[in-house]
TrEMBL record:
InterPro entries: GH, GH_1_N_CS, Glyco_hydro_1, Glyco_hydro_1_beta-glucosidase. It catalyses: Hydrolysis of terminal, non-reducing beta-D-glucosyl residues with release of beta-D-glucose. PROSITE patterns: GLYCOSYL_HYDROL_F1_2 (PS00653). This is Beta-glucosidase. It holds the Pfam family Glyco_hydro_1. The keyword Hydrolase applies. Belongs to the glycosyl hydrolase 1 family. GO terms for molecular function: beta-glucosidase activity. Keywords: Carbohydrate metabolism, Cellulose degradation, Glycosidase, Hydrolase, Polysaccharide degradation. Gene3D superfamilies: Glycosidases. It comes from Micromonospora zhanjiangensis. Its EC number is 3.2.1.21.
Length: 453
């Protein structure tokens, strides 16, 4: 169907939202006692960011949050997913809270509630305090305990008003790109040596769930990145490679959350891997990780093509192969709406009654949007993308998947990690020099969609 065909009705109470993250939009890196994060360090290292930009200013949301909340109110959204910058709350990752940091999120939360927008707070969207990275980061078990301390401080101040808490954002991506391949902060290149960062993030999640529940009655969850795996061949080796990648990307951060333990083959099952894993995964850890959650956040962008490795004895048991035959975004990601339906039904079938209600906590696309002479910003490709993916969500709901909401990534064009300012995901165009915000045609489309609901 074309975007001109009205979307079918979603269930009553379905949440419509947008999402952002702290380092990508806030700026104000030296404001009010904020400490240094791993992204502050990484972005200032020559060659790390494709266009040489940093998040020092980004969208200057730290100073312009009222303007951005007004944009959200104009959309008519029911919820806003943002992340809290850990270095604003604990500049060194430990110790008492920095009052000015908590004050900022206090003001933001109150501004959202005044506009009837529910605050949805993510505790960790990759901006680890640099001081914790200096002593091992997520490779250090102690970071999990420090994360729980931070969660308690944040919930102690905001827990009476934040409507949904998410502990981690995309721990798979942070482990893989941050500790495995070095494309993201902190820039380590450990390949499978990054796996301890998986366990420690999950342990931190479980400890944070307990800390949050002690301070707030709001629901608690996590936001995972998922990617349906498409074998690029029918041979036994290709299917085995696809299964290995599925275990790493999709099951590693979900099986243990839902009480299934770690998938075999990743070095985290003590019985399988011997003393090394037994040292890493200690008695009681899996019970902590499997603390019941109220929501599973699902971030979806595209499926992944996988084939058997060209070199069977190489460092990885699979090879990533570009999917062909689909339109592509400016990120060169394939546009595959049916992949979202596939993902949601796979989660339902895989986890059954153990699967909590789902929120689509991120879904969106980058295109090369420009502001025209008449001050408009047309982005028909984004409208088509969002329309197609929402139809996929609706089909999944009709097929019995309990999906409660959908958050567009992103409200604003932002600092897109290693891509700097070269990739625009926003419903709102941001001129990074002037900080002028220009709603795109997708903003009007989403606003009208929500108003019809």
């Amino acid at each position: 169907m074309s975007p001109g065909t009205p979307l079918p009705a979603f269930p009553p109470g379905f949440t419509w939202g947008v999402a952002t993250s702290s380092y990508q939009i806030e700026g104000g890196v030296d404001a009010d006692g904020r400490g240094r994060s791993i992204w502050d360090t990484f972005a200032h290292q020559p060659g790390r960011i494709i266009d040489g930009t940093t998040g020092d200013v980004a969208c200057d949301h730290y100073h312009r949050y009222a303007e951005d909340v007004a944009l959200m109110a104009g959309l008519g959204i029911g919820a806003y997913r943002f992340s809290i910058a850990w270095p604003r709350i604990q500049p060194a990752g430990t110790g008492p809270a920095e009052p000015a940091g908590l004050d900022f999120y206090d003001r933001l939360v109150d501004a959202l509630l005044e506009r009837d927008v529910d605050p949805v707070a993510t505790l960790f969207h990759w901006d680890l305090p640099q001081a914790l990275e200096d002593v091992g980061g997520w490779l250090n078990r102690d970071t999990a305990h420090r994360f729980a301390d931070y969660a308690e401080l944040a919930a102690g101040r905001l827990g009476d008003r934040v409507k949904l808490w998410l502990t981690l954002n995309e721990p798979f991506i942070h482990m893989t790109l941050g500790y495995g391949t070095g494309e993201h902060a902190p820039g380590r290149t450990l390949l499978f040596g990054a796996v301890p960062a998986a366990h420690h993030q999950l342990l931190g999640h479980g400890l944070a769930v307990a800390a949050l529940r002690a301070r707030t009655g709001s629901p608690v969850g996590i936001a995972n990145n998922y990617s349906p795996v498409r074998p690029q061949g029918t041979g036994e080796a290709d299917l085995a490679a696809a299964a290995a990648y599925d275990a790493l990307h999709n099951r590693l951060f979900t099986d243990p959350l839902l009480g299934r333990g770690y998938p075999v083959g990743l070095g985290l099952d003590p019985a399988e891997a011997g003393a090394g894993a037994a040292d890493l995964v200690r008695d009681g850890d899996l019970a902590v990780i499997a603390a019941p959650i109220d929501v599973l956040g699902v971030n979806y962008y595209n499926p992944t093509g996988i084939a058997a490795p060209a070199e069977p004895d190489g460092p990885l048991p699979f090879e990533m192969v570009p999917l062909t035959g689909y339109p592509r975004t400016a990120f060169d990601w394939p546009v595959v709406p049916e992949g979202l339906h596939e993902l949601l039904t796979t989660l339902r079938d895989r986890y059954g009654a153990d699967l909590p209600p789902i929120q689509i906590t991120e879904n969106g696309c980058a295109y090369d949007d420009t502001v025209a002479a008449d001050d408009g910003c047309a982005d028909p490709e984004r409208i088509a993308y969002l329309d197609g993916h929402l139809r996929a969500v609706h089909r999944a709901v009709a097929d019995g998947v309990d999906v409660r909401g959908y958050f567009v990534w992103s409200l604003l064009d932002n600092f897109e990690w290693a891509e700097g300012q070269t990739k625009r995901f926003g419903l709102v165009h941001v001129d990074f020099d002037s900080q002028v915000r220009t709603p795109k045609s997708s903003y009007a489309w989403y606003r009208d969609l929500i108003s019809r609901r």
